[in-house]
Write a structure and sequence with these properties.
Layout: E1 4-9, H1 15-27, E2 31-36, E3 44-46, E4 52-54, E5 57-58, E6 69-72, H2 78-83, H3 86-97, E7 101-105, H4 108-114, E8 123-124, E9 138-139, E10 144-147, E11 152-155, H5 161-173, H6 175-184
Helix pairs in contact: 1-5, 5-6
């Protein structure tokens, strides 16, 4: 059974993180919806290093759907744009209330999740320069932190994006798919 993941994007998002999440999960057979959180409603996104992305839809079209994971890329000021998107905030709060997974990498654990009180007493990490902003969280300076009880997975940045994304696949499909995917992507170091 195909799982569904929402990947919100906005101007100045970190492109390595966004594309790695999208690509890895689609390789695993996941239905990934890339939704723009641009204030003007545009689905055209210029990422932090000038890479242009085309979202599937504006975030406003995602409010009636349910997702197994909502996975936030980071980057600055992209994470601030995600933080300031009320529709995304409402989706994240609902996701947590329903007991579904939330994932964030780089600046987004601090700038988005902690800002909105979604990391209270939850083990989490963020880019090293944002560790001090993990307000309310149990901050852990590790490349990847999974809080199984809270259903929150966080990671540190572009260099950890592949491991983060493979672990999203592991959460969705289990160890066998994780190993097959890592092997197919020549990511033996992740095993």
């Amino acid at each position: 059974m195909s799982k569904s993941v929402l990947v919100p994007v906005a101007h100045s998002i970190e492109e390595i993180e966004a594309v790695t999440i999208i690509d890895t999960l689609r390789r695993a057979g996941t239905s990934v919806t890339v939704a723009s959180c641009n204030a003007d409603g545009s689905i055209n996104v210029e990422a932090s290093r000038g890479v242009r992305l085309l979202a599937d839809c504006p975030i406003s079209e995602c409010t009636d759907a349910h997702y197994d994971i909502i996975a936030l890329p980071g980057g600055m000021p992209g994470a601030e744009h995600l933080r300031d998107c009320q529709t995304l905030t409402d989706l994240l709060i609902s996701q947590k209330q329903m007991g579904h997974w939330i994932a964030a990498i780089c600046a987004s654990p601090a700038i988005v999740l902690a800002h909105h009180g979604l990391l209270e007493d939850i083990r989490a990490t963020a880019h090293p320069s944002f560790q001090s902003q993990l307000t309310g969280a149990v901050a852990i300076n590790e490349p990847l932190v999974i809080d199984e009880e809270a259903k929150i997975i966080t990671s540190q940045g572009p260099g950890t994006a592949m491991y983060f994304s493979l672990n999203l696949a592991k959460i969705l499909y289990g160890e066998i798919v994780f190993r097959e995917l890592a092997t197919a992507m020549v990511a033996h170091w992740a095993l």
